[in-house]
Specification:
single chain; 6-stranded parallel sheet; globular
Length: 233
Protein backbone atom coordinates (compact mmCIF):
# COMPACT_ATOMS: atom_id res chain seq x y z
CA UNK A 1 0.00 0.00 0.00
CA UNK A 2 1.44 3.38 -1.00
CA UNK A 3 0.55 6.55 0.80
CA UNK A 4 -1.39 9.07 -1.24
CA UNK A 5 0.60 12.28 -1.81
CA UNK A 6 -0.50 15.04 0.54
CA UNK A 7 -2.66 12.76 2.68
CA UNK A 8 -2.13 13.41 6.38
CA UNK A 9 -1.67 10.19 8.36
CA UNK A 10 -4.71 9.34 10.47
CA UNK A 11 -4.00 9.47 14.21
CA UNK A 12 -5.16 6.20 15.76
CA UNK A 13 -5.64 4.76 19.25
CA UNK A 14 -5.75 0.95 19.53
CA UNK A 15 -7.92 -0.53 22.32
CA UNK A 16 -7.67 -4.26 23.12
CA UNK A 17 -7.36 -6.02 26.48
CA UNK A 18 -5.08 -8.76 25.13
CA UNK A 19 -1.52 -7.45 25.30
CA UNK A 20 -0.18 -9.66 22.50
CA UNK A 21 -3.03 -8.69 20.16
CA UNK A 22 -2.81 -5.00 21.04
CA UNK A 23 0.94 -4.84 20.56
CA UNK A 24 0.67 -6.85 17.35
CA UNK A 25 -1.83 -4.40 15.85
CA UNK A 26 0.29 -1.44 16.92
CA UNK A 27 3.38 -3.01 15.36
CA UNK A 28 1.53 -3.89 12.14
CA UNK A 29 0.11 -0.41 11.69
CA UNK A 30 3.49 1.10 12.48
CA UNK A 31 4.85 -0.55 9.35
CA UNK A 32 2.20 0.92 7.07
CA UNK A 33 1.81 4.41 5.61
CA UNK A 34 -1.34 6.42 6.19
CA UNK A 35 -1.69 5.91 9.94
CA UNK A 36 0.09 7.05 13.07
CA UNK A 37 -0.60 5.10 16.27
CA UNK A 38 -0.66 7.70 19.04
CA UNK A 39 -1.82 5.52 21.93
CA UNK A 40 -2.87 2.04 23.06
CA UNK A 41 -5.46 1.12 25.71
CA UNK A 42 -6.06 -2.10 27.63
CA UNK A 43 -9.75 -1.49 28.32
CA UNK A 44 -12.64 0.82 27.51
CA UNK A 45 -12.02 3.20 30.40
CA UNK A 46 -8.46 3.77 29.27
CA UNK A 47 -9.63 4.21 25.67
CA UNK A 48 -12.05 6.99 26.69
CA UNK A 49 -9.30 8.66 28.73
CA UNK A 50 -6.82 8.53 25.85
CA UNK A 51 -9.36 10.00 23.45
CA UNK A 52 -9.92 12.93 25.83
CA UNK A 53 -6.17 13.39 26.17
CA UNK A 54 -4.97 12.80 22.61
CA UNK A 55 -8.00 13.63 20.39
CA UNK A 56 -7.21 10.90 17.82
CA UNK A 57 -9.01 10.68 14.49
CA UNK A 58 -10.02 7.04 14.97
CA UNK A 59 -10.12 4.39 17.71
CA UNK A 60 -9.71 0.75 16.71
CA UNK A 61 -11.96 -0.77 19.36
CA UNK A 62 -12.14 -4.31 20.67
CA UNK A 63 -15.55 -5.17 22.11
CA UNK A 64 -14.98 -7.60 24.96
CA UNK A 65 -12.85 -5.77 27.51
CA UNK A 66 -12.92 -5.43 31.32
CA UNK A 67 -14.12 -2.41 33.32
CA UNK A 68 -15.81 -0.80 30.32
CA UNK A 69 -16.60 -2.86 27.22
CA UNK A 70 -16.19 -1.65 23.66
CA UNK A 71 -19.86 -0.81 23.14
CA UNK A 72 -20.05 1.46 26.18
CA UNK A 73 -16.67 3.01 25.37
CA UNK A 74 -17.88 3.69 21.82
CA UNK A 75 -21.07 5.32 23.12
CA UNK A 76 -19.10 7.57 25.47
CA UNK A 77 -16.50 8.52 22.88
CA UNK A 78 -19.08 9.40 20.24
CA UNK A 79 -21.11 11.39 22.78
CA UNK A 80 -18.24 13.23 24.45
CA UNK A 81 -15.75 13.45 21.56
CA UNK A 82 -17.71 13.45 18.28
CA UNK A 83 -14.59 14.36 16.30
CA UNK A 84 -13.21 10.86 16.94
CA UNK A 85 -14.58 7.98 14.86
CA UNK A 86 -14.67 4.36 16.04
CA UNK A 87 -13.88 1.26 14.00
CA UNK A 88 -14.65 -1.99 15.83
CA UNK A 89 -11.96 -4.65 15.39
CA UNK A 90 -13.10 -7.93 16.92
CA UNK A 91 -12.73 -11.66 16.54
CA UNK A 92 -16.06 -12.88 15.17
CA UNK A 93 -18.13 -11.59 12.26
CA UNK A 94 -21.28 -12.71 14.08
CA UNK A 95 -20.31 -11.17 17.43
CA UNK A 96 -23.56 -10.39 19.27
CA UNK A 97 -22.28 -6.91 20.00
CA UNK A 98 -21.97 -5.84 16.36
CA UNK A 99 -25.41 -4.25 16.29
CA UNK A 100 -25.18 -2.49 19.68
CA UNK A 101 -21.77 -1.19 18.59
CA UNK A 102 -23.20 0.26 15.39
CA UNK A 103 -26.09 1.78 17.32
CA UNK A 104 -23.58 3.23 19.78
CA UNK A 105 -21.94 5.09 16.92
CA UNK A 106 -19.25 2.84 15.47
CA UNK A 107 -18.66 3.77 11.83
CA UNK A 108 -16.76 0.63 10.84
CA UNK A 109 -16.59 -3.02 11.84
CA UNK A 110 -13.78 -5.38 10.86
CA UNK A 111 -12.70 -8.81 12.05
CA UNK A 112 -9.21 -9.34 13.43
CA UNK A 113 -8.20 -11.44 10.45
CA UNK A 114 -8.31 -8.25 8.35
CA UNK A 115 -4.97 -7.34 6.79
CA UNK A 116 -3.12 -4.14 7.61
CA UNK A 117 -4.04 -2.54 4.30
CA UNK A 118 -7.72 -3.32 4.92
CA UNK A 119 -7.55 -1.71 8.36
CA UNK A 120 -5.90 1.41 6.94
CA UNK A 121 -8.53 1.64 4.20
CA UNK A 122 -11.30 1.35 6.79
CA UNK A 123 -9.70 4.05 8.95
CA UNK A 124 -9.47 6.51 6.07
CA UNK A 125 -12.87 5.41 4.76
CA UNK A 126 -14.71 6.40 7.94
CA UNK A 127 -12.84 9.72 7.97
CA UNK A 128 -14.06 10.45 4.44
CA UNK A 129 -17.66 9.51 5.23
CA UNK A 130 -17.74 5.90 4.08
CA UNK A 131 -18.78 3.02 6.31
CA UNK A 132 -15.87 0.72 7.07
CA UNK A 133 -17.99 -2.43 7.08
CA UNK A 134 -16.41 -5.66 5.93
CA UNK A 135 -18.62 -7.36 3.30
CA UNK A 136 -19.30 -10.27 5.69
CA UNK A 137 -20.44 -7.80 8.34
CA UNK A 138 -22.75 -6.00 5.92
CA UNK A 139 -24.30 -9.32 4.85
CA UNK A 140 -24.73 -10.28 8.51
CA UNK A 141 -26.36 -6.92 9.22
CA UNK A 142 -28.96 -7.50 6.53
CA UNK A 143 -29.52 -11.10 7.64
CA UNK A 144 -30.06 -9.99 11.25
CA UNK A 145 -32.51 -7.31 10.17
CA UNK A 146 -34.37 -9.93 8.14
CA UNK A 147 -34.50 -12.32 11.11
CA UNK A 148 -35.81 -9.63 13.45
CA UNK A 149 -38.54 -8.35 11.16
CA UNK A 150 -42.04 -8.93 12.54
CA UNK A 151 -43.89 -10.99 9.89
CA UNK A 152 -47.22 -9.56 11.08
CA UNK A 153 -46.03 -6.09 10.10
CA UNK A 154 -44.60 -7.09 6.75
CA UNK A 155 -46.17 -5.46 3.73
CA UNK A 156 -46.36 -7.03 0.27
CA UNK A 157 -43.50 -5.78 -1.88
CA UNK A 158 -44.20 -3.96 -5.10
CA UNK A 159 -43.17 -5.62 -8.33
CA UNK A 160 -41.78 -2.34 -9.63
CA UNK A 161 -39.35 0.22 -8.16
CA UNK A 162 -40.28 1.29 -4.60
CA UNK A 163 -41.75 4.73 -4.02
CA UNK A 164 -39.10 7.17 -2.70
CA UNK A 165 -39.78 7.73 1.04
CA UNK A 166 -39.43 10.91 3.11
CA UNK A 167 -39.22 13.29 0.19
CA UNK A 168 -36.21 11.62 -1.41
CA UNK A 169 -35.73 12.18 -5.12
CA UNK A 170 -35.41 9.20 -7.43
CA UNK A 171 -31.66 9.77 -7.70
CA UNK A 172 -31.22 10.11 -3.93
CA UNK A 173 -33.11 6.84 -3.51
CA UNK A 174 -30.85 5.21 -6.09
CA UNK A 175 -27.77 6.40 -4.20
CA UNK A 176 -29.24 5.09 -0.94
CA UNK A 177 -29.81 1.65 -2.45
CA UNK A 178 -26.22 1.54 -3.73
CA UNK A 179 -24.95 2.48 -0.26
CA UNK A 180 -26.97 -0.40 1.16
CA UNK A 181 -25.41 -2.70 -1.43
CA UNK A 182 -21.98 -1.81 -0.03
CA UNK A 183 -20.66 0.53 -2.73
CA UNK A 184 -18.37 3.39 -1.73
CA UNK A 185 -18.62 6.91 -3.17
CA UNK A 186 -16.21 6.23 -6.03
CA UNK A 187 -18.06 3.07 -7.05
CA UNK A 188 -21.43 4.85 -6.88
CA UNK A 189 -20.09 7.67 -9.04
CA UNK A 190 -18.87 5.15 -11.61
CA UNK A 191 -22.17 3.23 -11.58
CA UNK A 192 -24.24 6.39 -12.03
CA UNK A 193 -21.70 8.09 -14.32
CA UNK A 194 -21.51 11.23 -12.19
CA UNK A 195 -18.74 12.89 -10.17
CA UNK A 196 -17.91 11.91 -6.60
CA UNK A 197 -18.78 15.48 -5.59
CA UNK A 198 -22.29 14.93 -6.96
CA UNK A 199 -22.55 11.66 -5.05
CA UNK A 200 -21.54 13.42 -1.81
CA UNK A 201 -24.20 16.08 -2.41
CA UNK A 202 -26.87 13.39 -2.86
CA UNK A 203 -25.67 11.62 0.30
CA UNK A 204 -25.76 14.83 2.34
CA UNK A 205 -29.28 15.52 1.10
CA UNK A 206 -30.62 12.04 1.77
CA UNK A 207 -29.01 11.94 5.23
CA UNK A 208 -30.71 15.24 6.08
CA UNK A 209 -34.11 14.07 4.79
CA UNK A 210 -34.04 10.65 6.46
CA UNK A 211 -32.35 11.70 9.70
CA UNK A 212 -29.64 9.03 9.48
CA UNK A 213 -26.18 9.96 10.73
CA UNK A 214 -23.94 7.54 8.86
CA UNK A 215 -23.88 4.81 6.25
CA UNK A 216 -24.51 2.01 8.73
CA UNK A 217 -27.78 3.69 9.75
CA UNK A 218 -28.52 4.26 6.05
CA UNK A 219 -28.34 0.49 5.46
CA UNK A 220 -30.87 -0.10 8.25
CA UNK A 221 -33.11 2.66 6.90
CA UNK A 222 -33.01 1.32 3.34
CA UNK A 223 -33.97 -2.14 4.51
CA UNK A 224 -36.67 -0.84 6.83
CA UNK A 225 -38.26 1.07 3.97
CA UNK A 226 -38.20 -1.97 1.69
CA UNK A 227 -35.67 -0.41 -0.70
CA UNK A 228 -33.39 -3.45 -0.50
CA UNK A 229 -33.94 -7.11 0.15
CA UNK A 230 -31.95 -9.27 2.59
CA UNK A 231 -29.63 -11.91 1.12
CA UNK A 232 -31.78 -14.66 -0.34
CA UNK A 233 -34.88 -12.48 -0.03
Amino acid sequence: MTEEPGRTPARVVVADDQTVVREGIVMLLGLLPGVEVVGAAGDGEEAVRLVAELAPDVVLMDLRMPRCDGVEATRRIRSEHPGTQVVVLTTYADDASVFPALRAGARGYLTKDAGGDEIVRAVHGVLSGDAGLAPSIQRRLLERLSESEDPSESQPRRAGPPEPPDGLTARETEVLVLIAEGLNNTQIASRLQVSTATVKTHINNLFAKTGVKDRAQAVRYAYGKGLVRPPGG
